[in-house]
């Protein structure tokens, strides 16, 4: 049992998570980091990143990147804002419009990558510029603003911004996305194709895997997840903002790699991605509970990140050598 | 003569200015083993990549079961019952034996939304099929292919093709990395597949293997069909010369015999 | 227009603040029928060196007049001196209050970030805040940092404590991350009873954080810049104040002065202060009304 | 001749550069984009990015990333600023200290990547956080600011900030770095090892290439180049700032990939990187000469980028199919 | 008996819990060809990776030229005159033939700082060496290795090892992807190298090839040395059985002969 677990891609991330969590639990006595509210805090933080990290991770396992998630989050929140606030439209149709826009951006990315065979790093970078440029241009054209309020119905508020105590409903969304991601990657046939596409594209194609379909589907999933995060953030903060989500562009790949996914594709697990995200949430939230001088905040972040990844690596090696 | 399973008519395949195949015509018949022979770089692998939908021919027609066909992808070919062992398009090192074996034709269990890939079945079948070839060290379908020896990987690919190659089986140098026992087993399995009515294309540089199982022989020299004959129509010597790209092998052979 | 365009080197439009500045430029340009071009970075990660370079390029195009936000004085001031020496009329807006007279510019429209922070510190100190937290979401940006410096100075003068907090560079546009950061600080330093944020987005995060640690009403939150949500929060009594720089005025008046200077040689003597205008419960209603009717004029709607 | 050129990795970037340049030359008549000053403008812009893009490109060819260049640029400029301004030290020793710091950061990256076998994406990301955090923390500790003025001697001003008309001396530095990079990659034995290391690490190791030495050297070169850029920027703009160079972190890989380097390593050329950088310079500078509405500027940027990369790709395919 | 060139004493190599080599002892003598035989997965490739500095032995001693030696890297082994053709550690597809050929031992021209790799020389030598083996299609040293056929790549690797293997030459299934002509040429070249005093380790699954050039034979079964004998000490039948991992091949052989 234990041995088998140790060999899984997430073993390292799990060990790193436990160590980091214990570290903060001990370093922040009496500040409530381990309390229900403190836990809700870092879970809230991890949840939004986690929702987009999972499809980004699947995409990375299939061998591709998506740098356009940042602008998609912003665009989706602005669609909600412009629709409900400027045009006074009801919120639900706008939610679906935002999701459709996310899917369309993903589809465009996927088609462009698959048809032109250009590296997705560049294609999605161009998309990122185009989407944020279009969002800003259109917002300024329509409303003279790049950030605007969102008027949401109670039902929408419940679905996207309900809170129990301090825990946001986004945590449930995260779990849902993680569960779906897990079923797809580890259990479904499509998941086998994802691994194969990233592991050896030629071999996968030769074996009859529809590699183009795999990639396009994952780009669409990523676009959808980014749009969902835009909706969650927008409804929660009652406002759309074209720059929402910019940080995710690099945080998502980071937590995915921490979670044990190979940057070159072909290897990784959803559990690992979830743990990597949780680790990131614990670090970036917990660090403030320590009361350390925040002038050094990035130094601490870097050191903790390095320590976590080293622990991760050490466990993985240990696991491989003992089998 | 029965209707050929697959037929190439005047097929060309160019890579940029490299003419890998020139005016190739040939027929694969069901229940027969066609040996594709030729020197290194003669175009054999390119030819089978055209047969299996991996490459599109630059010009010419491919007929499958009597109808002109264009395989848009290897997937399509595979779904029509053509299974291939490629020479250089290997397996996926970071995936398990079971998952590699069933890649592209995974067995499912359960119902939507809980339909899953049946890993237990996949692992069992994969190990069983590989052990048929005499491999004893591979006992778990969960082992990563990347940790297997060259021959073990080759057996995986062959076992897979034989398991799925309902109508047609294409094997590009399947025995080259294999031990004597495993190679003999592969030849034996090919004969069984032939009995079951599959059309088989077999590439090898081993004259002994070719002569022992081949029904018809097609020889490529520099991308062109240089000869095509039936079992027993040519002597071992003639075949060897053709396999060497038309050059006279007797001298080299003598050389080898000297010390043998 | 016979002598080339009027070039404006100003802030990134992805910031709602500068969207309002540009709205002012656009409206005035239409009213006074002048042609101008707005130049700004598209990627905010390299601003410290990108802005001097953009300015340098703008100067090399020999514009009829230059309207510049002097965000990064070390690099930009020598260039402005070059431009004025070459006879290009320069008008500074937004940042550069202390420098415009020295570099030969004809004037300044805007506010002093230090003064704005100072004012915020004064308000909080007067309201009885004993330990104030200045939350900087964009560490390394010297202009924004000045606001915290002003806040800290005012609090210190009043004999109060301050905590300066920054966050990782990736989280500057993530309200959730800012909430958790502030929440953590509030837990680690329970004595904090005042928060000053440098933008309206972190202001909302600060309110959420205060709520989450269960100290709503005990901690006074104020912010620089405003947004519709911030105004509503002021109306609800959650947010104590928002300091408006009136960005629209910075753009509008710059064009107006440029137009009058180019045509009649007129310009204000002394700088034009557009901020800080303190918006609190006393004047929030009208501001909200304007914001509803004229989107983009008062900032984020 | 032409055929041979067409097959080179930089052929696409060259075509894309020419097309883009012509586009701007035609789209901006009378604005001076093609004048000496306009040319100096985009060259200045390209030069600093170019200096760090070349070692980053070599590193990418060898199969590794370096995300820590951003913080190294900032750290180097702050070393100059704190040394000359706060402590009143002469500028030249500070220049060497800054370069030494850059080399040390590179060495640390290299050793960490080679010894731990962790992906360089994560290792250098951690370094990036650590270095920027340390820079900010130390700066605020010493001078209570994260940016500070630089006092440079005339000789230093000449070497790092001389201007002829509007052209900066950084252009010469760029050419120098490009020349050295070209000699190393295309002509030297070490260059062969770089290609081999990135093309197939196991095969290179098996053939007797000292792959670890190759990687560590390239990390050091990258750190040095980043420090040089920090010095150039610092002296030129009279100030150090901890956040200088953050944009390079992703602009450098972008121009490298546009220049025809494979993201997965093993393929590329210095000429290509130079052209990719020039292309980027032309687009980001030229776009303001067009007088297009700034609201849409990022949209145009994205579209131009996409068009340039497509042209790039098209030419490359044409070249491969005609041989 | 002259001093052995290389000697393994009680060498183990484990990968995690996989015991790929167990208590292996053997000697490579100068001017002799040692044939390393064994079934798929027997540990042959692992053994030669230990010999060539690619892997470190888990335990045991490696002696080179009479002294205990630890090769820290393949580079060190290479610099001491040991050249290897690995089975799975291929060439660099995106590099040219000439650059691949001289990788790790590049010829230089000019002086510092204008010292460059001598691509002209490298290309010439590479193409020349490959043509020695009878390849005619590879005429330019600038061709990318990725566009060559499987056999052409194999010839490149062999030509390279033969060119640099001054003292010791290790060939892991060098002939498996080769045509009859090329394979014969490789055997011929091996005999020439032997005459020049090199010690050669040769892995093959082809009994005919093994018997025709081998001086001594070492058989691995499941990672252990199962037999070790000199040329002529065992019959073809016995050797075949040993190659098949100790199993009796006569039945399978019969099977094959039936149709031959
Ligand atoms: N993708 C490609 N691009 C360019 N040239 C190619 C490509 N694939 C094959 N070739 C060329 O086509 C010719 C035939 O190659 P092919 O792989 O079909 O030979 P083969 O008969 O299978 O040889 P071997 O027995 O060595 O495997 C070779 O000269 C090779 O260089
Ligand atoms: N890196 C590795 N990690 C784990 N197991 C390995 C590794 N390399 C080899 N093995 C295992 O060691 C055993 C011996 O492998 P090796 O490649 O030496 O066999 P071989 O004799 O060369 O076989 P073949 O004739 O098929 O090439 C195999 O069972 C293989 O699975
Ligand atoms: Mg072949
Ligand atoms: Mg082997």
Question: What average pLDDT do the residues of chain C reach?
Answer: 89
Helix content of chain C: 40-55%
Using only C-alpha atoms, the radius of gyration of chain C works out to 19 Å
Strands of the largest sheet of chain B, in order across it?
A: 6-9-10-3-11-12
Mean pLDDT of chain B: 85
Top-tier CATH class of the domain at 6-92 and 166-259 in chain B:
Alpha Beta
Main structural class of chain C: alpha/beta
CATH topology call of the domain at 6-92 and 166-259 in chain B: Rossmann fold
Number of helices of chain C: 10
Query: What order do the SSEs of chain B take from the amino end to the carboxyl end, as H and E?
Result: EEEHEEHEHEEHHEHEHEEHH
Oligomer: heteropentamer
Shape of chain C: globular
Largest sheet of chain B: 6 strands, mixed
- List the strand order in the largest sheet of chain C: 2-1-3-4-5-11
SS element count, helices of chain B? 9
Number of strands of chain B: 12
Spell out the blueprint of helices and strands:
The complex is a heteropentamer, with two copies of chain A (323 residues), two copies of chain B (260 residues) and one copy of chain C (301 residues).
Chain A: H1 2-6, H2 11-27, H3 36-61, H4 69-86, H5 91-116, H6 120-143, E1 147-149, H7 154-161, E2 163-164, E3 167-168, H8 170-187, H9 189-199, H10 201-206, H11 211-237, E4 239-241, H12 248-258, H13 270-289, H14 297-322
Antiparallel strand pairs in A: 1-4, 2-3
Chain B: E1 6-15, E2 18-28, E3 33-38, H1 44-51, E4 59-64, E5 67-68, H2 74-79, E6 82-85, H3 97-101, E7 108-109, E8 116-117, H4 119-131, H5 150-164, E9 168-172, H6 180-195, E10 199-203, H7 207-213, E11 216-221, E12 224-230, H8 236-243, H9 250-259
Chain C: E1 6-9, H1 16-32, E2 36-39, H2 47-60, E3 65-68, H3 73-85, E4 90-94, E5 107-110, H4 113-126, E6 131-136, H5 142-157, E7 161-166, H6 175-188, E8 194-197, H7 200-212, E9 220-224, H8 228-236, E10 241-244, H9 247-264, E11 272-273, E12 277-279, H10 284-293
Parallel strand pairs in C: 1-2, 1-3, 3-4, 4-5, 5-11, 6-7, 6-8, 8-9, 9-10
Antiparallel strand pairs in C: 10-12
Helix pairs in contact in C: 1-9, 2-3, 4-5, 6-7, 8-10
What does this entry look like structurally?
Chains B, E: Pfam families: ABC_tran (PF00005). Chains B, E: This is ATP-binding cassette domain-containing protein. Chains B, E: Keywords: ATP-binding, Nucleotide-binding. Chain A is mainly α and 323 residues long. Chain A has a single domain (2-26, 34-316), classed as Orthogonal Bundle (ABC transporter involved in vitamin B12 uptake, BtuC), CATH 1.10.3470. Chain A is built from 14 helices and four strands. In chain A, a hairpin with a 2-residue loop joins strand 2 and strand 3 (167-168). The longest helix of chain A has 27 residues, at 211-237. Chain B has a domain at 6-92 and 166-259: Rossmann fold, CATH 3.40.50.300. Helices cover 34% and strands 25% of the residues of chain B. The longest helix of chain B is centred in the last third of the chain and has 16 residues, at 180-195. Chain C is an alpha/beta fold and 301 residues long. Helices cover 46% and strands 17% of the residues of chain C. Chain C has ten helices and twelve strands. In chain C, the strands form two sheets. Chain C has a six-stranded parallel sheet, with helices on both faces. Chain C has a six-stranded mixed sheet with strand order 7-6-8-9-10-12, with helices on both faces. In chain C, helix 8 (228-236) runs antiparallel to helix 10. Chains in contact: A-B, A-C, A-D, A-E, B-D, B-E, C-D, D-E. At the B-E interface, helix 5, helix 6, helix 7 and helix 9 of B face helix 5, helix 6, helix 7 and helix 9 of E. One magnesium ion binds next to helix 1 of chain E.
């Amino acid at each position: 049992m234990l041995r088998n677990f140790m060999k899984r891609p997430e073993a390292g991330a799990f060990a790193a998570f436990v160590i980091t969590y214990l570290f903060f639990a001990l370093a922040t006595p009496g500040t409530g980091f381990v309390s229900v509210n403190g836990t809700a805090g870092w879970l809230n933080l991890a949840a939004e990143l986690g929702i987009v990290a999972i499809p980004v991770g699947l995409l990375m396992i299939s061998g591709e990147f998506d740098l356009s998630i940042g602008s998609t989050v912003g665009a989706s929140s602005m669609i909600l804002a412009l629709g409900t606030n400027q045009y006074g439209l009801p919120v639900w149709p706008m939610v679906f419009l935002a999701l459709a826009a996310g899917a369309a951006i993903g589809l465009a990315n996927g088609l462009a990558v698959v048809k032109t065979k250009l590296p997705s790093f560049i294609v999605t970078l161009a998309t990122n510029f185009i989407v944020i440029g279009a969002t800003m241009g259109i917002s300024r054209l329509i409303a003279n603003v790049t950030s605007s309020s969102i008027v949401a119905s109670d039902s929408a508020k419940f679905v996207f911004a309900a809170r129990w105590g301090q825990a946001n409903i986004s945590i449930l969304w995260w779990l849902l996305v993680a569960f779906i991601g897990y079923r797809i990657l580890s259990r479904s046939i499509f998941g086998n194709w994802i691994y194969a596409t990233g592991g050896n594209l030629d071999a996968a194609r030769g074996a009859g895997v529809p590699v183009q379909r795999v990639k396009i589907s994952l780009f669409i999933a990523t676009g959808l997840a980014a749009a969902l995060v835009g909706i969650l953030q927008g409804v929660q903060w009652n406002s759309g903002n074209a720059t929402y989500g910019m940080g995710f562009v690099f945080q998502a790949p980071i937590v995915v790699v921490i979670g044990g996914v190979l940057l070159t594709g072909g290897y990784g697990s959803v559990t690992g991605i979830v743990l990597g995200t949780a680790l990131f949430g614990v670090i970036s939230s917990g660090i403030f509970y320590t009361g350390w001088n925040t002038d050094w905040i990035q130094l601490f972040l870097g050191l903790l990140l390095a320590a976590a990844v080293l622990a991760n690596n050490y466990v993985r090696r240990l696991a491989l050598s003992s089998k | 003569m029965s209707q050929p399973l697959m037929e190439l008519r005047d097929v060309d395949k160019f890579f940029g200015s490299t003419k890998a195949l020139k005016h190739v015509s040939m027929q694969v018949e069901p229940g027969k083993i066609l040996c594709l022979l030729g020197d290194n770089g003669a175009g054999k692998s390119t030819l089978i990549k055209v047969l299996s939908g991996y490459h599109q021919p630059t010009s010419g027609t491919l007929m499958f079961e009597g109808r002109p066909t264009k395989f848009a992808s290897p997937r399509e070919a595979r779904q029509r019952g053509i299974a291939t062992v490629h020479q250089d398009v290997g397996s996926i090192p970071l995936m398990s034996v079971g998952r590699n074996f069933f890649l592209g034709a995974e067995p499912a269990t359960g119902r939507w939304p809980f339909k899953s890939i049946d890993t237990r079945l996949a692992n069992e079948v994969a190990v069983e099929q590989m052990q048929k070839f005499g491999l004893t060290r591979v006992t778990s379908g969960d082992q990563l292919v990347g940790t297997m020896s060259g021959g073990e990987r080759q057996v995986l690919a062959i076992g897979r093709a034989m398991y799925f190659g309902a109508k047609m089986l294409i094997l590009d140098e399947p025995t080259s990395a294999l031990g004597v026992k495993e190679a003999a087993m592969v030849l034996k399995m090919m004969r069984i597949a032939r009995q079951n009515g599959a059309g088989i294309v077999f590439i090898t540089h081993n004259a002994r293997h070719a002569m022992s199982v081949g029904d018809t022989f097609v020889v490529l020299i520099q991308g062109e069909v240089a000869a095509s004959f039936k079992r027993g129509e040519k002597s071992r010597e003639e075949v060897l010369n053709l396999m060497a790209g038309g050059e006279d092998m007797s001298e080299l052979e003598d050389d080898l015999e000297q010390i043998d | 227009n016979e002598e080339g365009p009027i070039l404006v080197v100003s802030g990134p439009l992805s910031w709602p603040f500068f969207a309002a500045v540009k709205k002012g430029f656009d409206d005035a340009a239409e009213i006074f029928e002048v042609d101008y071009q707005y130049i700004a970075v598209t990627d905010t990660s390299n601003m410290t060196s990108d802005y001097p370079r953009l300015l340098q390029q703008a100067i090399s195009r020999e514009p009829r007049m230059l309207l510049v936000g002097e965000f990064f004085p070390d690099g930009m001031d020598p260039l402005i001196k070059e431009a004025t020496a070459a006879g290009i009329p320069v008008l500074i807006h937004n940042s550069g209050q202390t420098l415009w007279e020295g570099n030969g510019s004809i004037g300044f429209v805007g506010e002093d970030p230090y003064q704005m922070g100072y004012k915020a510190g004064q308000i909080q100190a007067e309201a009885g805040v004993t330990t104030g937290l200045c939350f900087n979401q964009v560490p390394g940006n010297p202009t924004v940092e000045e606001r915290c410096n002003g806040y800290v100075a005012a609090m210190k003068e009043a004999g109060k404590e301050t905590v300066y907090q920054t966050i990782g560079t990736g989280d500057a546009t993530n309200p959730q991350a800012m909430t958790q950061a502030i929440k953590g600080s509030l837990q680690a330093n329970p004595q904090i009873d005042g928060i000053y944020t440098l933008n309206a987005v972190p202001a909302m995060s600060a309110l959420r954080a205060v709520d989450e640690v269960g100290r709503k009403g005990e901690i006074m939150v104020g912010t620089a810049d405003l947004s519709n949500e911030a105004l509503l929060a002021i109306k609800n009594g959650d947010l104590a104040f928002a300091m408006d720089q009136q960005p629209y005025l910075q753009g509008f008046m710059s064009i107006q002065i440029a137009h009058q200077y180019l045509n009649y040689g007129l310009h204000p003597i002394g700088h034009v202060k557009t901020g800080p205008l303190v918006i609190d419960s006393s004047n929030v209603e009208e501001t909200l009304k304007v914001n509803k009717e004229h989107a983009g004029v008062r900032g984020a709607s």
